């Protein structure tokens, strides 16, 4: 089998997605997600101009060699644009191999280690009462794990809280919006939120919280300690992770489990975090981390240190990445949990898929390959629209981490 052609489908069914389609001379095709939120066209052009011409005529079964060709062969390594482009190719090749061998991708990754993939979803509210209500509603829908975020009194447009009535979607069309941030108000508030949520929901529900890189290490240590009575499943991205050593300080002060890595694009971003056991869950994603091939190696390394996976799964990860993550999560031994922020109805129509949710777990389905397709005619009706993630400023106007 040979790769005959490859193309990009850039569309915006409620939000932007960049999808790679690789077609073989046997008529089998594979899909890969190349969506990098707010920087979509950089990846699309990187693929179109620099990567796709090199793929034509290659054997799509040689996934490892093609990965090395695109990684080492570029000379310039790492970075979100490069690694998302490599990931898209990698996903499409695993999809093709599964279809050619008539088996779901989880079978190519070692087979089922479990029957379903535990997922957590997002609950949020403008205040504590609304947030508690939202957690309870998601638990009633069957979720066994829920992330709770709430508006912080005195801080307009807090992370994770939607503008009235709409589901939360961080990227917005047009230029970047601005949100405000106060560490002091947040740190005083969050323990009260989890006291209320835990009291209302009992001991069994898994509760998670995303700090979204807003704290210094010592502030994160204080928060982790304050949240210990509510035994969170994890505290996410407590501090930016460019300096992996920052997590040592947090670890020395609290037993609240820590998850990080949704912005990582290389195993090396996580190397010290894992080998020093400063984190409990690795949030790298298949799309931004270089594909299934790269993440399998990262997960296997993490397994040696009892670090589990907890992959990013917000709406900017397309249904193709979602499917890849579910196959991966069903197979690897050290799977922990998978984030699930459901896509809109329109997105699901553009990407028909075999995966499903039932009673707290997701299932990749048994279709060959990844089990996701794209309706190109429908996608064409929703052209790309420029969109950005917000930026954040402190109350005095200083730009800070969003
Ligand atoms: O900020 O998906 O855990 N989920 C998150 C998301 C991310 C966006 C970035 O594109 O942190 O809200
Ligand atoms: Co996050």
Give the strand order of the largest sheet, numbering strands 1, 2, ... along the chain: 4-5-8-9-10-11-12-13
The CATH topology of the largest domain turns out to be TIM Barrel
Give the overall pLDDT as a whole number: 97
Number of helices: 13
- The amount of helix comes to 25-40%
Broad shape: globular
Low-confidence stretches: none
**List of distinct ligands in this structure:** (2S,3R,4R)-2,3,4,5-tetrahydroxy-N-oxo-pentanamide, cobalt (II) ion
Give a short account of the largest sheet. 8 strands, parallel, barrel
The structural domain count equals 2
Distance between the termini: 46 Å
CATH 2nd-level architecture of the largest domain: Alpha-Beta Barrel
Helix- and strand-based class? alpha/beta
How big is the Rg?
20 Å
CATH homologous group name of the largest domain = Enolase-like C-terminal domain
CATH class category name of the largest domain: Alpha Beta
């Amino acid at each position: 089998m040979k790769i005959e052609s490859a193309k990009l489908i850039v569309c915006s069914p409620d939000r932007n997605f960049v999808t790679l389609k690789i077609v073989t001379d046997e008529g089998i095709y594979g899909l890969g997600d190349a969506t990098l939120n707010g920087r979509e066209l950089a990846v699309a052009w990187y693929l179109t101009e620099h990567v796709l011409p090199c793929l034509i005529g290659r054997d799509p079964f040689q996934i490892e060699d093609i990965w090395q060709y695109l990684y080492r062969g570029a000379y310039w390594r790492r970075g979100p644009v490069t690694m998302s482009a490599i990931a898209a190719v990698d996903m499409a090749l695993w999809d093709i191999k599964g279809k050619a061998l008539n088996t779901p991708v989880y079978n190519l990754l070692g087979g089922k280690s479990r029957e379903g993939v535990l997922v957590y979803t997002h609950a949020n509210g403008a205040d504590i009462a609304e947030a508690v209500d939202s957690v309870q509603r998601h638990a009633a829908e069957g979720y066994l794990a829920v992330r709770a975020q709430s508006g912080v009194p005195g801080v307009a447009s807090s992370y994770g809280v939607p503008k009235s009535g709409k589901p939360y979607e961080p990227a917005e069309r047009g230029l970047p919006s601005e949100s405000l941030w106060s560490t002091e108000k947040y740190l005083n508030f969050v323990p009260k939120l989890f006291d209320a949520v835990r009291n209302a929901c009992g001991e069994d529900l898994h509760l998670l919280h995303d700090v979204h890189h807003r704290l210094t290490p010592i502030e994160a240590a204080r928060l982790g300690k304050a949240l210990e009575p509510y035994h969170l499943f994890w505290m996410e991205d407590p501090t930016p992770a460019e300096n992996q050593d920052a997590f040592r300080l947090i670890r020395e002060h609290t037993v609240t489990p820590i998850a990080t890595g949704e912005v990582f694009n290389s195993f090396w971003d996580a190397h010290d975090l894992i080998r020093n056991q400063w984190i409990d869950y690795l949030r790298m994603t298949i799309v931004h981390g270089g594909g299934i091939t790269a993440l399998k190696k990262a997960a296997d390394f993490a397994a040696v240190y009892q670090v589990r996976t907890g992959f990013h799964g917000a709406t900017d990860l397309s249904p193709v990445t979602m499917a890849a993550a579910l196959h991966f999560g069903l197979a690897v031994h050290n799977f922990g949990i998978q984030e699930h922020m459901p896509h809109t109805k329109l997105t699901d129509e553009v990407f028909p898929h075999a995966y499903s949710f039932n009673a707290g777990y997701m299932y990749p389905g048994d279709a060959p390959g990844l089990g996701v397709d794209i309706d190109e005619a429908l996608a064409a009706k929703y052209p790309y629209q420029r969109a950005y993630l917000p930026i954040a400023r402190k109350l005095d106007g200083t730009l800070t981490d969003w």
